[in-house]
Amino acid sequence: MKSLQDAATLHNGVRMPWLGLGVYKVQEGDEVIRSVRTALEVGYRHIDTAAFYENEEGVGRAIRESAIRREEVFVTTKVWNSDQGYESTLKAFHTSLKKLGFDYIDLYLVHWPVKEKYKETYKALEKLYKDGFVRAIGVSNFQIHHLEHILADCEIKPMVNQVEFHPRLTQKELLAFCKQHQIQLEAWSPLMRGGELLNEPTLVDIAQKYGKTPAQVILCWDLQHEVVTIPKSVTPQRIAQNANIFDFTLTKEEMDAIDALNENRRIGPDPDHFDF
Q1: Taking the CB of residue 252, how many other CB atoms lie within 10 A of it?
Q2: What is the domain extent for residue 226?
Q3: 111 marked as part of a ligand binding site
Q4: pTM of the model
């Protein structure tokens, strides 16, 4: 990985940039338009949104109004829990497509494994894929047993699993399972929330060695684990800083030291125990 345009190759041959901009909790309208516009100007070619974020319209507008061709930007969105089910997922997808103002979406995900629903939701994604509306399909917040349930009888294997992943939650077993089955793991909230990790002495020491920030070290750690990552920011300086991570490489000892920060600690809901 040498640049912001470098991409993982999904098992169907589609290229997904390793680093993207997440827009969770970024306000619809001027704020999300500015964030996406800044990211595209910096060189990002991967934007991650969701129906639940309620900012698909702004994301789409920023991309359409840029000088960058649509096919050069990898766009992800997701079906929300209240829309899960076969027919309702198909309807929700076309609502998202209209809001974004596109003819297709690069990656469509099942946002959470809603019991009794996520399998038929995934079947709807398979139809959207076969009909050419999406270039890749996948899931989000799925544990190994959820993936096994999908893999047991799916026609098209998920290409991506987007999960909470950071040095306090390294998910080694899930990462290994996904690699074994050619499912690309993707990290949401790679920097955690609240800045706790950014003051972690191990990360501060490594950052000082390379003249980087702890956040940049974490993002480099993600990529060296071959995990796609989508840090969120609305600050132009931070958006640019998060992308400035392709000029250094962590040693095996440094990777191991960061791995050792794991506490199996989530900041988001447990995929086996959520009620929304």
Answers
A1: 8
A2: 13-259
A3: yes
A4: 0.97
Residues in the chain: 276
Cα distance between residue 172 and residue 212, in whole Å: 26
Asked if residue 128 lies in contact with residue 95, where contact means CB atoms within 8 angstroms, the answer is no
Residue 269 lies in a domain: no
H or E element at residue 106: strand 105-110
pLDDT in tens, 160-205: 999 999 999 999 999 999 999 999 999 999 999 877 899 999 999 9
Domains held by the chain: number = 1
Q: Are strands 105-110 and 74-79 parallel, antiparallel or unpaired?
A: parallel
| 268 within a domain of the structure (yes/no) | no
What CATH number did the domain enclosing 132 receive? 3.20.20.100
Give Cα separations from 217 to 8, 202, 211, 214, 254 (angstroms).
20, 10, 10, 5, 10
Residue among 44, 53, 118, 122 flagged as catalytic: 53
Residue 265 belongs to some domain of the structure: no
Residue 7 in domain? no
- Catalytic site includes residue 53: yes
